[in-house]
Structure formats: structure tokens, C-alpha cells
Amino acid sequence: MSQALIFDMDGTLFQTDKILEISLDDTFNHLRSLDQWNGETPIDKYREIMGVPLPVVWETLLPNHPITIRKQIDAYFLERLVANIKSGEGDLYPNVKEVFSILKENNIAIYIASNGLPTYLQAIVEFYKLDNWVTETCSIQQIESLNKSDLVRTIIQKYKITNAAVVGDRLSDINAAKENGLVSIGCNFDFAQEIELKQADIVINDLIELTSVLATLPIFQVEQTSIL
Fold this sequence. Notes:
Blueprint: E1 3-7, H1 17-33, H2 43-49, H3 54-61, H4 67-86, H5 96-105, E2 109-114, H6 118-127, E3 134-139, H7 148-159, E4 163-168, H8 171-178, E5 183-187, H9 194-197, E6 202-204, H10 210-213
Parallel strand pairs: 1-2, 1-4, 2-3, 4-5, 5-6
Helix pairs in contact: 1-4, 3-4, 4-6, 7-8
């Protein structure tokens, strides 16, 4: 039996909120310096769409700007995100490494499927040394459709996974699970929306709850269910 958990990154493992505002402020200050923006940074609008691919972010936040500007801003925003990660401005959610250790002890493989760009994801993985537990971190940029369901499907097929759940905070994660016949575990964290979480099979308020939740699911073989 091949068992696995496929995690979202932003708002599930990584507290994006801690670098989001400062990185977005950096970016819109840059836009102001180019005389391409007036007014406040649209942080609230970004929070509403958190979790969508970055091209959609800029289509939403900069609907009247040409594609050339959006591409420039996309690259600049990525630079600021990575810089803020490497300077330690962000943080993982509580118990990430503890839960990962327990999963590994129980032979449950760990994968990350994220809408984040590869450079951004790699910065997080390297800074927090997540590759000590994670088999592969996959970006939506690897999939032509930019659809998380397709991204999860490629992971399942590549590693011949038979039993798995998707852990994430947004509807795209829940749908990725359901459309691949997997269990969906919704995270009631910073960016989660109640109406979306209602569609998940299971909802947790802290990642540590995974250690007991998995023991109740017959598709998983779990022996150690708590941190000693």
C-alpha cells in the first residue's frame, strides 16, 4: 500500500500572512515609483483571492494595467517574497515539523502541491529544511492547465499512490481531493473561508490534529498517533 498526504503550502504549512503584506507593500511602492499606481495597497482584495495562481492575482489587482506591467510586477513581487523568506520574516504554522516527523515514522509519504512559483516554494523548503520530510514539492507552473486537481493527479500517477488525502485551506485543495477520489482535509487557518470548508470531508484547526484524524481513516495505516 502506498499512502501519502499532499499538502498545500500557503495558508496550510507556511504562514504567508507574515510576509504577504510587507511584500505586497514593497511591490505597490515600486508601482508608485513608476507612476503606475495611486492609493493604498489592495491587501484586503488579495486576501480574498489568496490561493489562486499569480497571473490571476495580477489580473484581479491590476485589471487596467497592460500585460507587460503585470509581468514586471509579478517578477518583482516574487523577488520580494523570496527576500523576505530568506530574511526570516515568515514562519511555518505550529507543529508542521512535529507532524511531518510522525508521518514519516508511519511510512506516510509527504508531498506539497502549491499554486506558488517554483522559486518561491524552493525558498521556503530550503529555509525551513522541509526536504528532510517532503518527497517532492510541486508547483502549479508544472501544469499547463494551472489546475490544482491536475497537479495532484500528476503526483498520484508519478508515485503510484493508492491511499491519500489532500490537506489545504481553500476550495481548490478540496476540489483537487474530490476530483481525484481522495479524502479532503480542510484547514481552518488564516485564509480559510467557512463556506468552502463545509465541502471538506474533515476540518482541522491545528495541524497536530492530523495525528489523530488519520488514525480514524481506514485508508491509512497509522501506529503512532500522538507526539510523545
